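Q: My labmate handed me this sequence with no annotations at all. I'd like to see what the chain might look like in three dimensions before we decide whether it's worth expressing. Could you predict it?
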Amino acid sequence: MLTLIAGLILFLGLHSVSIVAPYWRNRMVLFAGEGTWKGGLGLLNLLGFGLIVLGFAHTRQAPVVLYVPPGWLRHVTFLLMLPVFPLLLAAYLPGRIQSKMKHPMLAAVKFWATAHLLANGMLGDVLLFGSFLLWAIIDRISLRSRPVQSVRRASPSRYNDLIAIVVGLGLYALFLVKLHLLLFGVSPLALPPG
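A: Here is what I predict for the chain of 194 residues:
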């Protein structure tokens, strides 16, 4: 459990530098150079992500049940996951989705985390998905009062929304049928026991 907590603190903490200290971050980028800053941050994020994966795997070996979701919540989970991949892609594909949602990646994280909290009641799940949900909410609120940072995106195109939706839904289908089981050892389509 401590490995998961350490990974979450490192990963989400690094992703929160712009929330809690945007001017310090900008000074560090100027001091170290953008490439050095992003490279160092990338390595630390990779370490945090690795700790999250390792820690989450350990929580699966000795699960602590906090709640057992009712079976009908599976359908709500599938529904909440529908926009996740299109929103993630829309974050980098300028179009109507991006302009309407303002911050589609944060919306995707909120949908993803909420869906998984509805489907999973183990302590490790609540720590993982609850932390990401809380971070996304705080990040979204903080965007109202901090300077906007430029993000590298694709060129504007009238097809970007269509690409985000079609490719995003295709990725969702691929995750449902194969990738979730392959990557995480659990098939979302498997019927729950009982």
